[in-house]
TrEMBL record:
CDD domains: YkuD_like
Protein known as: L,D-TPase catalytic domain-containing protein
Pfam families, per the entry: YkuD
Domain L,D-TPase catalytic residue range list: 155-273
């Protein structure tokens, strides 16, 4: 009886004892957690988050021409990679082949070419040469087999004449793209690899050859050819050789002309291709 009185007295002093419910995870003595599977599982033989420090490999190399991520596929310069992984490229009956450790395959003819540099999807090297591909999610390193490269944040602008698109890259990563208007049939836009050599902010009036008109925020890269803002942005080639971009703001964001002017630096590489 004394024990019952003591318990009742304790309840009056300290209040009621909280109930432990299976529906109350904070008070439950044992709460089970289900960790969902990662929806972005990597393909076989592609490892994410690996760095040279983790694998204790040789110090990383640097690319002469940085890889590019295009439509979700990482493209690497084939000759530069072949030299590092001990592969050979040779010509046989008008076809190019890549060979490493008695494995060889015909190099596809429809690969991306920029100047004299040919790019190959890194997934082909994985599948056909049985190589492991390692990279980190911040695009700082790339490993192919036992060779590692340190990736830079170099800026590049690629202009696709066929699709009338302009792409901006920082290292392999695509950071911006927009519609562009290139030269018409009488004033074709020159293809090749160039660098921005002059920038003029705001409205710029041009007189003389090849035309007289207004540019906004021009980025000059070859003679009088420039990437510049314009009020005339049809869906087809219509310029006098320049690459037009819109000066129209969308949702209070900088216009393509403003964004490119702020982002592009003197010396930034511009690559103009018939088809990207």
């Amino acid at each position: 009886m004394k024990k019952v009185l003591i318990v009742l007295a304790a309840l009056l002093i300290f209040g009621t004892i909280p109930a432990i419910s299976a529906e109350d995870p904070e008070n439950s003595p044992s709460t089970l957690q289900t960790i969902p599977a990662d929806p972005e599982e990597e393909p076989n033989n592609i490892q994410v988050g690996i760095t040279p420090q983790d694998s204790k490999v040789v110090p990383p190399f640097s690319f002469t021409f940085e890889p590019l991520e295009v439509n979700g596929r990482l493209l690497v310069p084939i000759r530069e990679v072949a030299d590092r992984i001990g592969a050979k490229i040779y010509l046989e009956e008008k076809n190019f082949f890549l060979e490493r450790e008695n494995i060889r395959f015909k190099i596809p003819e429809d690969l991306l070419k920029i100047g004299d540099i040919t790019f190959i999807p890194v997934i082909l090297l994985r599948d056909l040469l049985k190589l492991t591909i390692d990279y980190d999610k911040k695009w700082e390193y790339l490993g192919i087999g036992e060779s590692y490269w340190k990736l830079s944040k170099v800026k590049r602008i690629i202009i696709d004449i066929a699709d009338q698109r302009l792409y901006c890259f920082e290292g392999p990563k695509l950071v911006y793209e927009t519609h562009t208007v290139t030269g018409d049939k009488k004033h074709s836009t020159r293809t090749g690899v160039f660098k921005i050599y002059k920038k003029i902010p705001g409205k710029h009036i041009v007189t003389g050859v090849p035309w007289t008109g207004v540019m906004y925020n021009p980025l000059y890269y070859s003679g009088m050819a420039a990437i510049h803002g314009s009020t005339s942005m049809p869906s087809h080639p219509a310029s006098h050789g320049c690459c037009r971009v819109s000066i129209k703001k969308v949702d209070k964001q900088p216009s393509p002309s403003e964004w490119l002017y702020a982002w592009g630096d003197i010396g930034t590489t511009i690559i103009v291709l018939n088809k990207f």
